[in-house]
Amino acid sequence: MIETTLGPLPAEQLGWINAHDHVIMDGGYTVVKTPDFKLDSVEKAVEELTCWKNAGGGAIVDAQPFGCGRNVLKLIQVSEATGLPIIVPTGFQSKEFYLPDHWQYKYDEDTIAELLYAECADGVDANGYESPVVNRSRVKAGFIKVAGDYQFVSPHTKKQIRAIAQVQQRIAMPVLVHTETGTAADELLDEFERAGIPLDRVMLCHMDRNYDFYVHRRLAQRGAFLQYDTPSRIKYQPERFVVELMRDMFDAGLGHRILLGGDMARRSYWKAYGGGPGFDYLLVKFTPRLRAEGFTDAELEQIWHTNPACWLTLGQM
Ligand SMILES: [Zn+2]
Questions:
Q1: What is the CATH number of the domain that holds 262?
Q2: Residue 295 CA, ligand 1 centroid: distance in Å
Q3: pTM score above 0.90
């Protein structure tokens, strides 16, 4: 069973899963610094996700953990209005999302492990671990997030990974990793290995920003999942690169390691806020393109359902 905003659900009820997106970003340092990140409206989220659902979309993996705008009560409202399950994280975003004196830099590994474990076992804090009062919601975390840096793994990230490993000894959890432009991925996997976390629990995000089949093949062969999210975002690269990369991965027998997400983390990306391309782009534009370029229904089902379900259930589906 997968923990969601609509309670624990079997994988088959999740449909086509968006493996990395942002439904609510309600405050936090980055939202103040860059107001385009502000995704605080339940109404707009319902509108945007209804388009996604009407295009055939299912569950959404929300990649905003505590302390940087996660609001589980709003996520529950969006799910109840749309019928779409949302998988909620515990853990940490990249450091740009926090003030430099955030508690994560002061607390030791054991304390951080306890805080993460409680969100996985008992429910995520409705206050986002931002106040002395913890108010656990009925939603348990579905995965743990951690972030790497551009070309290196910091001592701070290593501490977070060791804390995640402590949690894993008590409760097995999928891990979502923000990579900075797809770099230092091997080094991150080395740290997970050193900490004793099986690599098939790990999803490396934004990997197509480092478009390099040689690198991707090696990471997938080590057992990690690779998440792609550049389609529509031409500022990173033309879409043809990710289409070719996906084809190369399937041809190498590694199609079972690829996941897709929108990562529409800005209001200017949302149709509901008057921007674009919108949450449903991946389904109404990119998936038809994949079909036109030779991807079969079975391959699309694998990318959109089987692979993310496999990551979320730790291969138990
Ligand atoms: Zn993201």
A1: 3.20.20.140
A2: 26
A3: yes
